[in-house]
Each structure stands twice: as C-alpha cells, then as structure tokens.
Design brief:
Helix content: 40-55%
Radius of gyration: 21 Å
Distance between the termini: 55 Å
Largest sheet: 2 strands, antiparallel
Shape: elongated
Main location: membrane
Strand content: 15-25%
Structural class: alpha+beta
Number of strands: 2
Subcellular location: Membrane
Membrane topology: Single-pass membrane protein
Keywords: Hydrolase, Membrane, Protease, Transmembrane, Transmembrane helix
GO molecular function: serine-type endopeptidase activity
Order of helices and strands: HEEH
C-alpha cells in the first residue's frame, strides 16, 4: 500500500511540474506568436463564411507578423 502511494505521489508531482511549465509557455505563445479565433457573421463575406452559412470559420491570427510590420496588401487584419 505504501508503495502505491509513493507511485501516486511521483505521478502527481510530475503532473504539477509539467503543468507549471506548460501554462506559462502556452500563455506566452498565444500572446506573442499566434492564437486561434472564430469568425462569425456576414461581415467578412465572401472571404470568410461564404454563402451565408450558419457555421463559423476558424482562423489563425499571426501576432508575429504584426509585431514585425510584415503586413501586405490582401492580408486580413483583426482589431480588438
């Protein structure tokens, strides 16, 4: 029984160690590099949501290009 508790604590410790590393890395990535967003409605038709369908499109927002001023004609820019 004591050996099972030792194994459980080992896995729990490894989980929390990975958790406390993964969360800051993920938050930094989503803030600085890229994130995923949903586009709903008719405001971006016909490029996104063509045909007026009810489903939303999923896009990848590239923060890296904006920070480096690498925006070109034809790019879609999202403002908050």
């Amino acid at each position: 029984m004591a050996q099972a508790q030792g194994v459980g604590r080992k896995y729990l410790k490894a989980f929390f160690k990975g958790f406390f590393v993964a969360v800051p890395v993920t938050v930094t990535f989503l803030d600085r590099v890229a994130c995923v967003a949903r586009v709903e409605g008719a405001s971006m038709q016909p490029s996104l949501n063509p045909g007026g369908r009810q489903a939303s499109d999923v896009v990848l927002l590239n923060h890296w290009s904006i920070r480096n001023y690498d925006v070109q004609r034809g790019d879609i820019v999202s403002l908050v």
